[in-house]
Write a structure and sequence with these properties.
CATH class of the largest domain: Alpha Beta
CATH architecture of the largest domain: 3-Layer(aba) Sandwich
Structural class: alpha/beta
Order of helices and strands: EHHEEEEEEHEHEHEHEEHEHHEEH
Number of helices: 10
Strand order of the largest sheet: 10-9-8-11-12-15-13-14
Number of strands: 15
CATH superfamily of the largest domain: NAD(P)-binding Rossmann-like Domain
Distance between the termini: 18 Å
Number of domains: 2
CATH topology of the largest domain: Rossmann fold
Strand content: 15-25%
Largest sheet: 8 strands, parallel
């Protein structure tokens, strides 16, 4: 029997936004309650090419399959017309160890599970009346974070801050065409939005903690390797609530870990994000909240298994 290999077009038809959001929410909840197996991720860095690679594995307890995923980010690729992200997911039976399928998704499922995790986190932790959203970054994940959060709550204005003004304007044009009023903004103005999401491969903080307004929520998406750092340690010192997708990962190579090592946050100050979905977050209107996402292999496993079920139906 030939090993099934599914291409992007097949995966896109099966992986609806509702399927991914529901699956990621359930997987984060399972992870928060200890119902997953997630080994430490493998990281490779390619400084000369401004690239990196992640190999992540995960299993949700009692699920019939687990996954091993390769995801790459080579950030100069757009200059030559190539996408920044690539990869594939290998789905394996948790009962026999047999490889069931290869999802040749070119990094699509990683992008979508990241978008879902970020949108769910921001929606759960931000004030119910928060409507202005700022995104740091102008790539695929910046676009996805805005579009997927808009599925969960109204957004009145989108502020875009990026290193390239041309790319920031172009992304604003895409948002506006989708009915989301958007405009480029300085780092200081963007940091003052009700909700802030950072989606960059930055090695140094992209915003100033002093510019984040009381009552705001900030979600960091891009710090997924030890050399990366998007959110300043001082921001965690101001936060009334800190949530992480995986405590050990975020301590090891997340923005939360940078804050702990800088002495602005205690190593036990975080709450698992999955615990925040069961009931509304209790927070004073002037409290700052922060979510730190490093990407959890169990989410990849859950999404890939859900997509494979749809493809095999």
């Amino acid at each position: 029997m030939n090993l099934p290999v599914f291409a992007v077009a097949d995966i896109e038809r099966a992986a609806t936004a509702d399927l991914v959001l529901d699956t990621v929410r359930d997987a984060l909840t399972a992870h928060a309650h200890g119902r997953t197996t997630v080994p430490p991720p493998l990281h490779l860095q390619f400084p000369d090419a401004d690239g990196d690679c992640h190999v992540k594995a995960g299993w949700v307890t009692d699920a019939p399959s687990f996954t091993v995923k390769i995801a790459t980010g080579f950030y100069r690729n757009p200059r030559t017309g190539l996408p920044s992200n690539h990869g594939l997911v290998c789905v394996v039976s948790a009962r026999t160890g047999q490889v069931q399928a290869i999802l040749d998704d070119k990094g699509l499922l990683t992008a979508w599970r990241t978008a879902a995790a970020g949108a769910l986190t921001t929606h759960a932790m931000a004030r119910p009346d928060a409507t202005t959203l700022a995104v740091f970054g102008t790539g695929e994940q910046a676009r996805l974070q805005v579009e997927w959060l808009a599925r969960l709550r109204p957004i009145s204005t989108v502020l875009v801050h990026g290193r390239s003004e041309d790319r920031a304007r172009a992304l604003c044009g895409e948002f506006t065409a989708r009915g989301l009023p958007a405009r480029p903004a300085s780092a200081e103005e963007a940091a003052g939005a009700d909700m802030v999401v950072t989606t960059t491969p930055a090695a140094a903080p992209v915003l100033d903690a002093a510019h984040v307004r009381d009552g705001a929520h900030v979600t960091g998406i891009g710090t997924d390797m030890p050399h990366k750092n998007e959110l300043p340690p001082a921001l965690f010192g101001r936060a009334a609530l800190i949530a992480t997708d995986d405590h050990e990962q975020c301590l090891h190579h997340g923005d939360f870990g940078h804050a702990v090592r800088a002495g602005t946050a205690d190593s036990g100050a975080d709450t698992p994000i999955g615990l925040l979905f069961d009931k509304p977050v209790e927070r004073p209107d002037d409290a700052i909240t922060v979510g730190d996402l490093t990407g959890v292999g169990a989410l990849d496993a859950a999404v890939a298994s859900a997509v494979l079920r749809e493809l095999s139906a």
